[in-house]
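Problem 12. The chain below contains 108 residues. Write out its predicted structure in token notation.
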Amino acid sequence: MATTQTMGSETAASTTVPSGSAKQTPIRSMPRASSGGTHEEQVIRRIDSVLSVHETLSHYSESMTVTVEGSRIVVRGCLPSVALKQAIVPAIRQAGVLEQVCNCVEIG
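Solution.
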């Protein structure tokens, strides 16, 4: 995943804070402690873990961005096919994430 954004709560290691928006933290720099971090950070780590080992999505996981916006998981990025886009939500469900998922990935 490229970056995460948590709206409404603090993240562990902030890198940029555009005025008027929530803090953004690269997913790879977050602490990997199993019990550490906010609920949002733990959810993002689980999604990142599943996408990075997924049979087809793992090739594109670095080009996708997963954020937590309110109570929704939002996925953005660009994938080469509709089939790959359709594989995102089932993969996120494999991570045990039951929150609403907004799949904003473009095909191109």
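Discussion. The longest helix spans residues 39-53. Students who got a different answer should revisit the alignment rule from Section 12.3.
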